[in-house]
Structures are given as structure tokens and as C-alpha cells.
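re the bet — no i am not wrong, look at it urself. input seq straight from the record:
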Amino acid sequence: MNWPNAKPPIAVIGSIKQSELNAYVSLLNQGLPNETFVSESNLNDADKANCEIAIVANPSAEQLSKFPSLIWVHSLWAGVENLLSQCTNCSFKIVRLVDPSLSKVMSEAVLTWTLYLHRNIPAYAKQQTQRVWSSLPYCPPEDKTIGILGIGKLGKASALRLSENGFKVIGWSRHKKTISGIHCYRGQVGLDFVLKNTDILISLLPLTRSTHHLLGRKNLAKMHKNSAIINFSRGPIIDSKALPSELDSGHISHAVLDVFDEEPLAQTSPLWNHEQVTVLPHISAPTLAKSACRIVINNIKLYRKNGTIAPHVETNRGY
């Protein structure tokens, strides 16, 4: 097919709703009119064979297999573990979305749901169903320690926002990090310290081989009694078989879960009705389409200018 620009079209591929995919196509074409962005469904086999760049949103391996000439793909999500699982034999580079706006949105969610737990909202909600009028003891934020697992860009923004609101914040990461006002730890010894000294534990970790089930029975047991968990990273960070028993025993008081092993969460899952679980539909930090498209456009401009591919995923690390 003949396209308005001489260069091969840039494919927009994904398993999201076609209306959402079309919205990205429209924004990208408006923002970079000297390129041609086309939804996968509107490309013929010859077009697909010539595509060197693709913008992707959870594409399947089957979809990607139809694009043999790809040099690099730009994910519209910050997390790329699903994409990596589909690309075990792919030769192209993967650029994940690094969006400062996403950090702001995530830090807002972290603060919101930390306050939800800090101010005993689950307990008051239960009291309402029982028509109980009773105040619970108040604890000032400076007497609460919030532990963040994963203090990259999202984690750093979240840690600073919590600190600004009076909480004591400690963080853990695989590599050494330095954040003003935040005590940062690493390694197994550091992880043990964070687990043992945290009132509310927040996971913002990428899902990799080393973080899969990091919060399993052994590490969950290291948390002190009545501590709580917020998972805003990926479902398999927490062992879904170990968590319910920790909740049922009262060792962990509550879990706010925004991510799950499989999404949407199955209607038959006992988590829906568990009194000590708050289920969220993966909404902690949604991609902001306009902001994401600006970042994608700038990375494509850089590539067209001098062939530089934006910092891309190290497949051995998983991020």
C-alpha cells in the first residue's frame, strides 16, 4: 500500500480495545505528521514485513510474528514483563515507557491508599455494615513506618510524597540508591530489615525472575503482626497462596491489591469477599495517552535523527 510518507509505516499493535488503539494512532499522527502510524488491523502483509518500528500495548506473540523486520518497539506501558514473555526469540529492542507524569499519578495512588490504611478506613467500613458507632485510636503519621520495595522512578516519587506528608519512609531495591531524607536498603539483609520494621509495605517492584513470589510465606512471616500490604506492582510479586493464610491468622491486617496473577480477577476468586482485602481493577497508575504519545514521538525523532534507540530493556534483568 502507498502511504503519505516515503518511510515504512509505524505499526500500532495491541490487545487493548480497538477504540483505545485508534485513539493512540490519532494522537501519534497528529503529533508527528511526517510519519505514518497505522493500526495493525489496517496493514497488509507486505506493510507488516516492512515495518521497522512498532508502538505496542500488550501485543501477543502471534501479532508480533507478523512483523519480521522490526528493529525496535516502544511499549505504551511502564511494565514490560508480558511483552518479554511474548518475545523469547525476538531480535528487536524493547523501549519501555518512562513517563514523569506516571510517577506523579503513582505517588498520588500510593499516598491515597496509605492514608486509607493509616486512618483505619477498612475498619470503619466494617463498623458501618454493623451499625457500630465507635472511634478507633489515632496514630500520627510520624509514628508509622512505610516500607517501599522498588525505589526506581515510581518508588522515589512515592517515597518523597509520603515523606512530605509526615510518614517515616524506608526503601529497598536491588541496587544501591540514595534519596534525600529516605533510608535506602539493599540485599537480603536490607530486605529483612525493611520487612521487620514496616507498618505498611508497598510493592512497586518490576516482575523478574528474582522478584517472582518475593513476598512468599517466608518473607511475609518476617513482617510484624498487624502490618499491612499494598501491591501496586505485579500480582506474582506476592505468593497468592501464602497471603490468605497470613490475613486469616491476623498476622497481616489488610492487603490492598491492584494487581493479580491473572487479570481481570476471576469471579470465583475468594479475594473478592475477603474482609481484609481491598480489590482494585489495576488503576493505580494508568498510562496517560497524551503524555505517553509525547514521549514516544520524542524517541522516534531521536531515532530518525541519528539512529539512536532510547534506553531499552536489558532482557536478562527484565527491565
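see?? The longest strand covers residues 168-173. told u. also The chain has two domains: 10-99+287-306, 102-279. so pay up
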